[in-house]
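User: Predict structure, ligand pyridoxal-5'-phosphate.
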Amino acid sequence: MTSDEASAQASAQAGAEATVRSDDRRHVFHSWSAQGLINPLPIEGALGSWFWDYTGKRYLDFSSQLVNVNIGHQHPRLVAAIQEQAARLCTVAPSFANDKRGEAARLIAELAPGDLNRVFFTNGGAEANENAIRMARAHTGRHKVLSMYRSYHGSTASAITATGDPRRWANEPTAVGLVHFWGPYPYRSPFHSGSEAQETERALAHLRDTIVFEGAGTIAAVLIETVIGTNGILVPPPGYLTGVRELCDEFGIVFIADEVMAGFGRCGEWFAVDHWRVTPDLITFAKGVNSGYLPLGGVIISDPIAETFAERPFPGGLTYSGHPLACASAVASIQIFKEEGIVEHARRIGEEVIGPGLRSLAERHPSIGEVRGLGVFWALELVRNPETREPLVPYNAAGADAAPMNEVAAACKERGLWPFTHFNRVHVVPPCTVSEDEVQLGLSILDEALTVADRYVG
Ligand SMILES: Cc1ncc(COP(=O)(O)O)c(C=O)c1O
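Assistant: Predicted complex:
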């Protein structure tokens, strides 16, 4: 390319970027934001673990966007499968039978544990939880749903009310009958326990008390993220999920595992529950099922709950339930995952590269209070004081209070790493297909960026 051609190309790019910015600022209304206080980065393209802006600056995607691009960006076979299906049949109403819808449901049911044999498709995770709650209520004839503090289940009415983080507050009052309880969190134990075993025991006793005091006969479901995602990558200690299963059985409560973020390879398993060999009654999924190439989510339903709706209509539906294009992408994605061994890769890279790499960062950086995770689902919990465990920024910090975390994120971005940060944590959540070299590069950038956090350690 001559220098004239290069400068013509640069000015065309700058013009394209200016249009994207101006359309966005004038017409796009963004999620969770004060519209006048944001300045979204225009993105031109993406491939594998990388995306780039209009200036050509590349970012290593250690966030998988919203922890959904499990297969990596623009996987050529997945793109081709979507193109092929678009040319063949873009859409049919949910009341018809369709080959890709049926195949996607069968493949998902084959992967799911136990007797979870049917799938109700939705457009995303919130709708999946909304409908799982609806199923549990109809199945049990009870109305309450118990969910955890430190959880996110989506932004529709029941899902946001079930959510146990500040995103719920501004939405209240909304749905009724949603009750929160504390889950296990050994690093900051709500039960003052001294070991994982004690944490499990006390967290289960607390859940039992909550059930008894709310009235077991009023409780339709316990809804929990198998591994809590945005609220901290909280991996349940051994025995906890089995204990939840047993409590649900004892009291006739439906166990809903929200695997919207934790499922489809993220935890180095097809479903995170596989890690503990626990079978819930309903599993909700979205994100990794097709890496968000098209909007898709759903509920995987056990035989007894499906049976409830054998003779009685299910009181819910969506125009795009089982959308053929979205389902074709799920079929292709699952096939690619199997053929390329992506779940196994996610497990191995977590055990052999990300986990050890983060633990070695923790040896060098006093601001790292804890490293936890599995698969490609990891968190660094940042603190001001490793002894007292005072968080680097307060819970739900904003403005000046959040500055230390914003500075860490900015240091990552300057160096070409796109991090996922939440409260006082950096989550390391690259695509399941991330290579060892990419992980090492991301860790070396984190190593530099964390010196910013270290300065706050007193
Ligand atoms: C655990 C969990 N459940 C539900 C949701 C909501 O999914 P969606 O944004 O697709 O509605 C999310 C989204 O981040 C999630 O992480």
